[in-house]
Amino acid sequence: MKKTQSGFTLIEIAIVLVIIGLLLGGVLKGQELINSAKVRSLTNKVDGITAAWFAFQDRYRALPGDMSNATTQIEAGLTDGGGNGRINTNNERGQVWAHLSAAGFVTGKFLGTGVGNTYNCDTTICPENGFGQGMLITYGNRGTGNTGNANEMISGRSIPVGILAEVDLKIDDGDPSAGTMRLATAGAFSSCASGTDYNVTGNNTDCAVIFRNF
């Protein structure tokens, strides 16, 4: 007697392919939602810090970190700044967040320890950017195409280039070499953009930008 060999029917194969397609679609959609959440989180952090920075100035007529009488006007445990309108010393860079926190403009407790011009400020001193690195305000000229020194905020590193491209489109002009948000000039980030475009196809996950509206 002949034995017939059973196999998958076309309908069964079609069902399997549909299931695989649904699973892949769900994974891709889930990744898209995660990226959207990260873009929204970073955008909110930048907006919140910007608002806190200017609200502090409205109340005290001084810059956080640079305020020369913070110990008497805000809290005795703080360190006074130089009062020259520039966040240009290690102590002032560390005290920015301590001043803002003590005055109630940002949440969290920051050590206020002096810190240099760094792209990876410790998160006990600076607020975390959502990617494990601290965001630093300093006086300088570190953005692509910037001219002249000014107070600016370093986003902190370890941010995927695709996230920064989306944030730039939301709050600025989408150009890493123009506007108030620009790619950091440090050589480590050179592959994150080319000319007026972010290199989103490169998938660099260690990028940083500079915000010039401070």
What are the main properties of this structure?
single chain; 214 residues; alpha+beta; TcpA-like pilin; four-stranded antiparallel β-sheet; 4 helices
- The amount of beta strand, in percent, is 5-15%
Terminal Cα span: 87 Å
Oligomer: single chain
Shape assignment: elongated
Descriptive account of the structure:
Helices cover 37% and strands 9% of the residues. By secondary structure, the chain is α+β, with helices and mostly antiparallel strands. It has one domain (34-211): 2-Layer Sandwich (TcpA-like pilin), CATH 3.30.1690. It has a four-stranded antiparallel beta sheet with strand order 1-2-6-3. Strands 4-5 form a two-stranded antiparallel sheet. α1 packs across α4 (161-171). The model has no long low-confidence stretch (mean pLDDT 92).
Nutshell version of this structure?
This protein is of the alpha+beta class. It contains four helices and six strands. It has a single domain, classed as TcpA-like pilin (2-Layer Sandwich).
Write the layout of secondary structure elements.
Layout (H helix, E strand, L loop, with lengths): L9 H51 L9 H4 L16 H13 L33 E5 L9 E5 L6 H11 L9 E3 L9 E2 L2 E2 L10 E3 L3
Antiparallel strand pairs: 1-2, 2-6, 3-6, 4-5
Helix pairs in contact: 1-4
